[in-house]
Design brief:
This protein is α+β, with helices and mostly antiparallel strands. It has four helices and three strands. It has a three-stranded antiparallel β-sheet with strand order 1-2-3, with helices on one face. It is elongated. It starts with 12 loop residues before the first strand and ends in a 7-residue tail after the last helix.
Length: about 140
C-alpha cells in the first residue's frame, strides 16, 4: 500500500478545549487554549488494514477502547492547537499505513566469509605475538 492520502472527516473528530499546563501567567488560569482531540478508530473512515494496525499498536495515545487522544497545547491560539492536533493525528495514521518491507534472509558471499576469516587470523597472530618473551 503506497502512502495513504487520508484526512479525517469533521464528524469523526471530537475537540475539547481545556486549560493548558505550564507557564503563561494569569492567562493560563482563565483561558482554555489547549485542545484534546478524540478520534474513534473503529468508527472511522480508515481502511480496515490501517485500523487493525493502529488498534494493535502499543501507543499511549490509543486507549483500550480504540480511541486516539491527542493533547495539543504548544500555541496560545485555540485554532492553531486544533490544527496541530489534526496534523499529529494524520501523521500517526500515515505511520500506521506504512507497511515495512519484509526482510529476506541472505547468505554472506564466499569472498566476504574468506575476508572475515583472514582478518580474524591476522588479529589472532598479532595477539599471540604479545605473549611472554622467553630467553
Amino acid at each position: 500500500m503506497p502512502d495513504l492520502n487520508w484526512s479525517p472527516r469533521p464528524d469523526e473528530l471530537e475537540f475539547d478545549a481545556i486549560r493548558a499546563s505550564g507557564p503563561g501567567g494569569q492567562n493560563v488560569n482563565k483561558v482554555s487554549n489547549a485542545v484534546h482531540l478524540r478520534f474513534d478508530i473503529r468508527a472511522s473512515s480508515l481502511p480496515e488494514a490501517v485500523k487493525a494496525r493502529l488498534l494493535n499498536w502499543a501507543d499511549q495515545r490509543i486507549t483500550a477502547d480504540g480511541v486516539v487522544v491527542i493533547k495539543a497545547q504548544d500555541s496560545r491560539s485555540l485554532e492553531r492547537n486544533r490544527a496541530d492536533a489534526v496534523a499529529r493525528l494524520i501523521e500517526l495514521v500515515q505511520a500506521a499505513a506504512h507497511v515495512p518491507k519484509a526482510r529476506r534472509a541472505t547468505k554472506p558471499t564466499y569472498g566476504s566469509q574468506q575476508r572475515r576469516l583472514e582478518g580474524k587470523a591476522k588479529r589472532s597472530s598479532v595477539k599471540a605475538g604479545r605473549g611472554r618473551v622467553l630467553d
